[in-house]
Amino acid sequence: MSKIMDFDNIEDLRTTHLVKWSPEFTAHDVIPMWVADMDFPTAPSISDALQVHARSANFGYRHRPARLFESILNWFQQRHQWRMQTDWIVPTPGVIPSIQMAIQSVTNPGEGVIVQTPAYYPFFSSVTTHNRELIINPLIGSTDGYRFDWQLFEAQLTKASAFLLCNPHNPVGRAWRMDELTKIVELCSKYQVSIISDDIHCDLVFPPNRYMPIPILPTTTDVDVVYCYSPSKSFGLSGLNTAFTVIPNPVLRKKYLSKLHSTGYYWGNSFGDAALEAAYAHGVEWMDTFKVYLSRNIEILTHRLTEIGGIELMPIEATYLAWLDFRATGLSEEEVSQRLSMAKVQLEKGSVFGEDGRGFQRMTIATQSFNLEETLSRISRVF
């Protein structure tokens, strides 16, 4: 297996200062499977680009080169059949800052923003910190996965100014289908509700599912949509603080830039820019191989959980995050967490994703297969 494809290689992450591998876990032989970060080295093309950039003689403010924007345009056209335009792209320091700028740009204080639970927990504070009303729209869960409560969603749209969509959805692993996204667009258009779409996991969708950006749908919308992206989850670049939004509406884009610049953000991180460009320009082979490896981990997880009583895996259509249902164990969330602690395994409690997540735990499976196997062996000894 070539270097680019050897995801079974492992380095000692305990001394890297990675949040995932904090001393509070590693000092006690706890396997950390909680935060949405991978355990793999990033693509060699990215490491090489960063080393070249590190040899630069000057690290002052830099204009972003045209080739950086071209890498984004080419990636999204080839991978997702979306023909963006360069001037739609607004670089940002991260997806959550992108979302917060979008909320401030498309809503006014006191107006409502719909968030679907279980939800990535920074969504909640992104709404409330800016004095907007948080409108909770619970997804309907079943053994087949999660779906919209369309009746409730439409009723809530009458009270909202924005809908915060997660496409694909973290933590429940849904890759929203064309018919679902089309209905979202039609309903938001009907009630003139702007859409803020967190699409950070768009490159991590598994066949036969696919990522569907709203602009390629067979429908049109007259409401504003802000798309939030980053290669951080797909390529393991969270520590480089590099992201971008896509805003087709020039009037909204100007307003968004004004909000962004008011935070003091102008030029960005040149190392993050170098990594982003390398990811999209040269990361195809690595990404394709990574997804095959993740698919194998999903197979391992699915098989092993059939041997452990009371834990059900929700279908993983996208992301490297497994949403595990512990409710059939009859244990409270605290009791589940206590048993996991006894097993020396750290997952993410479902309740942090909203009350609709209580009874679940989120597991990151972007790790070496033998590490996943060991994690599941430890869990099997306490359930």
Automatic annotation (TrEMBL):
One of its GO terms (molecular function) is pyridoxal phosphate binding. Keywords: Aminotransferase, Lyase, Pyridoxal phosphate, Transferase. The keyword Lyase applies. Residues 35-379 form the Aminotransferase class I/classII large domain. Its cofactor is pyridoxal 5'-phosphate. InterPro entries: Aminotransferase_I/II_large, C-S_lyase_PatB-like, Class-II_PLP-Dep_Aminotrans, PyrdxlP-dep_Trfase, PyrdxlP-dep_Trfase_major, PyrdxlP-dep_Trfase_small. Its EC number is 4.4.1.13. Belongs to the class-II pyridoxal-phosphate-dependent aminotransferase family. MalY/PatB cystathionine beta-lyase subfamily. PANTHER family: PROTEIN MALY (PTHR43525:SF1). This is cysteine-S-conjugate beta-lyase. It comes from Reinekea forsetii.
